[in-house]
Amino acid sequence: MLLQPRDANCDGSIFCIVNFSSRSYQPEILDEDNIPFEEIKLNMEELDFINTHLGGHDITIKGVRKILSQRPPQKILTIAEIGCGGGDNLAAIERYLNKNSIPVQFIGIDIKKECIDYAREKFPRSPVRWIVSDYKDVHWESGKPDIIFSSLFCHHFRENELIWMLKWMKNESDLGFFIGNGFVEHFENSVARLKAHPCQRLFCFRMSRHKG
């Protein structure tokens, strides 16, 4: 259970109780068409805040590190993210690999053009090939990526679609794949850090509701 700020679905109390005992199949608001770009931009900034302060980027980098051991020496890595959103995960990986002098190029895939537009605007110098597409329709120009991953993406799919996605990631990656939704394991410790943050802000992630 989790307390959530009141919205149109609440009964008039200040907070609603969100029940996580069963999965919601309500479409995420971000999946709707015709969302103004400024609202998408705000949502991408909020997701970057979550990933930075609640451990999402740490989990993503951990996934990359586990697969790195299989990398042939001197090989330039290619890492692809499906459902890349605003590109903050790829930027976090780039910072980590640059610090460790590991050459890399990226592919960021998202079905929503507005998300790719935001990523291009925010990371104009990153070595990323941005693709607006359903991940299933992507054709690699220079062979398969070494690593394919997704983060906070699985909630968009039903069980049979998830199975198909996992098989696709396995077949389309050279070294390996991973899913970064597991940053929940950092949640309890991170909430304490978030409460101590100078902003002391209560975030309402409007377009990210109905996840899970």
Judged by helices, strands and strand pairing, the structural class is alpha/beta
Helix fraction bin: 25-40%
- Output the number of helix runs: 6
Rg calc: 18 Å
Total strand segments: 7
At CATH level 2, the architecture of one domain is 3-Layer(aba) Sandwich
Question: CATH homologous superfamily of one domain - what is it?
Answer: Vaccinia Virus protein VP39
Shape: globular
Overall residue-averaged pLDDT value: 76
Widest sheet, order of strands: 5-4-3-6-7
Low-confidence stretches: 1-8, 182-212
Question: What this model shows, in words?
Answer:
The protein has 212 residues and is α/β, with parallel strands linked by helices. The protein has a domain at 53-185: Rossmann fold, CATH 3.40.50. Helices cover 35% and strands 16% of the residues. It contains six helices and seven strands. The protein has helices spanning 37-53, 56-68, 88-99, 113-122, 159-172, 187-195, and strands at 2-5, 15-18, 77-82, 104-110, 128-132, 147-150, 176-179. The strands form two sheets. Strands 5-4-3-6-7 form a five-stranded parallel sheet, sandwiched between helices. It has a two-stranded antiparallel sheet with strand order 1-2. The protein is globular and about 45 Å long. Residues 1-8 and 182-212 have low confidence and may be disordered.
